[in-house]
Amino acid sequence: MRSVLPVLTVVAAILGIWYAASVWMNSTWTLDQAQRAGTTPTFSEMVTDTLAQERPKLPAPHQVARELWETTVEKSITSRRSLVHHAWITLSAALAGFAIGTGLGILLAVGIVHSRVMDMSVMPWAIASQTIPILAIAPMIIVVLNSVGVTGLLPKAIISAYLSFFPVVVGMVSGLRSPDAMQMDLLRTYSASRAQAFWKLRLPASMPYLFASLKVGVAASLVGAIVGELPTGAVAGLGARLLAGSYYGQTVQIWSALFMAAILAALMVGAIGLVQRITLRRMGMAR
Amino acid sequence: MTRPVIEAQGLNLTFQTSDGPVQALSDVSLTIGEGEFVSFIGPSGCGKTTLLRVIAALEEPTGGTITVNGMSPDAARRARAYGYVFQAAGLYPWRTIAGNVKLPLEIMGMPRAEQEERAGRVLDLVELKGFERKYPWQLSGGMQQRASIARALAFDASILLMDEPFGALDEIVRDRLNEELLRLWARTGKTICFVTHSIPEAVYLSTRIVVMSPRPGRITDVIESPLPKERPLDIRDTPEFIAVAHRVREGLRAGHGDEV
After folding, report:
1. What CATH number should be reported for the domain holding residue B247?
2. Which end of chain A, N or C, is surrounded by fewer C-beta atoms within 10 Å?
3. B24 near B13, Cβ under 8 Å?
4. Distance, in angstroms, between B66 CA and closest chain A CA?
5. pLDDT at position A45, please?
6. How many domains are contained in chain A?
7. Is A282 on the interface with B (CB under 8 A)?
8. What is d(CA A69, CA B246) in angstroms, rounded to the nearest whole number?
């Protein structure tokens, strides 16, 4: 409970700065309008107007909150204007991509740890893959997959897997290599096989590393799914909302989509944290 | 001497390091008989751990011959000739104490019922009965090391190789574990090779003390202990004990030559 006060202080400070910035950034429009009408607004009139514009440069927090409420709670989730509907479309692609990325990442890590050839050949490519801007490669993935008849969720999932496999590879390689020389020597004194060393030592020892990288990977997979919606003129999903919002200057819609993405990411990271706690407790590794 | 268990003849081992070759073992010849308790003592770099690792087939000698139970060390390892206790307990944090003791038994493919029975028996032997279902972090350092000894005993190897197993423990715990180890040795009749850098520990435990010195790692003295098999802790104040300890110290000093 002692942490409540500092947390609330930080939230209040952010809201304060946000409101101040809204007033400052939106005042140009207000003053412009007033000048055309030949009036001079009082300070309080100006503040009221800046916080209630239709298309503000920076929407005020309560405008974003209202938009979020209207598009999630007050709309039926099957409606095309429901943010829950769009969030689900993005989330399903992100989760599929995360599953693909995690599976691929674990497989690559197992290969890298057990084969010197893979260690030397795969790792540089994995690192290189992450230096290419995802915005540059996403349209190509979509176009290539489209030409072979793959459309819908899968192309987006692959872009999100492209981003999320990397932290899993890096984390799992360190995790599978975390047993020290003494631990490996101990297994040698039992004449244990490589498979036994993997299942009995390397894999359990890698679990804390796996969960740390899953948390990074799941957030990356959401970014991937949203980016996958941008260059393709997708009609649904959070990426589509962002794009449509920027076409029509609907800043409130952009901000509410951004907040929805942040909420989704927080929920997914939280879910992994929960699985982590349960798993480590079952393994007896939680104190 | 009893039936020889470990026989080393003119053993050499040179490590190739980036600083050039390092001779870890130089012309080491030694025979260890069944049921002996042999300590290897010397300063760091004298090759005592390397010698133990050669016996365990964890290192390959570059010269000389060595047999364990009449076989090559590698064959002896596959025949489960020895249990190895490291300086750190190295228990798996995700396994209970009993689970850790069963680890080698699982790897060797023993039936479950037998694993259970053996784990219970060896935990009893190291006085850890009742801790089967605890996790390593719930035990003190000394208890963890006892569990690791139980793990090395679980598959009934006739040789116990111990590499400074009590080095990281405080003196009081160490004294207790030394006493327990002697009792365990008397009850099981195992051949024990024990690496240490503590003179009192070596003299208290051993029937024979092998004094080694560095650069190159070699044996400088082998001391037969005149102490009786029954050894209460206060034997360390007797003149016989002090005389043996003195000879070990002399051997260590001679091995160091002019460097000290």
Report:
1. 3.40.50.300
2. N
3. yes
4. 17
5. 84
6. 2
7. no
8. 85
Please give the ipTM for the structure prediction.
0.89
B21 shares a domain with B104: no
Residues A118 and A241 in one domain: yes
Q: Between chains, do B92 and A201 touch, taking CB under 8 Å as contact?
A: yes
Range of the domain at A52: 4-58
Contact at CB, B107 and A196, closer than 8 angstroms: yes
| Full DSSP string of B152-180 | HHTT--SEEEEESTTTTS-HHHHHHHHHH
Express as a percent the part of chain A with pLDDT over 90. Answer: 52
For an interface test with A, give the residue of B105, B107, B153 to mutate (most A CBs within 10 A): B107
On chain B, the residues whose CB falls within 8 A of the CB of A185 are 58, 84, 86
- pTM score: 0.84
Nearest residue in B to A181, CA atom: B90
Facing B90 at nearest CB: one of A182, A200, A285: A182
**Residues A91 and A161 placed together within one structural domain of the fold:** yes
Q: Does any CB of chain B come closer than 8 Å to the CB of residue A139?
A: no
Q: DSSP assignment, residue B223?
A: E
Reference A228, options A105, A109, A89, A117; nearest CA is A89
With CA atoms as reference, report the closest residue to B193 among B29, B62, B11, B36. Answer: B36
The answer on A101 and A39 residing in a single domain is: no
Same domain, B13 and B41: yes
Q: How many of the other CB atoms lie within 10 Å of CB of A74?
A: 10
**What pLDDT is recorded for position B13?**
93
